[in-house]
Amino acid sequence: MDKNTHSSGSVVQAFGNLLHVKFDSPIRQGEVARVIVGEESLLGEVIEIAGDIAKIQVFEDTRGVKFNTPVHFMGHLLEAELGPGLLSTIFDGLQNPLEKVADATGVYLERGIYLPPLDREKKWDFTPLAKPGDVLKRGDSIGFVPEGRFRHMIMVPFSHFGKITITSIA
Question: Where exactly does CATH 2.40.10.170 map onto the chain?
Answer without folding.
Answer: 7-77
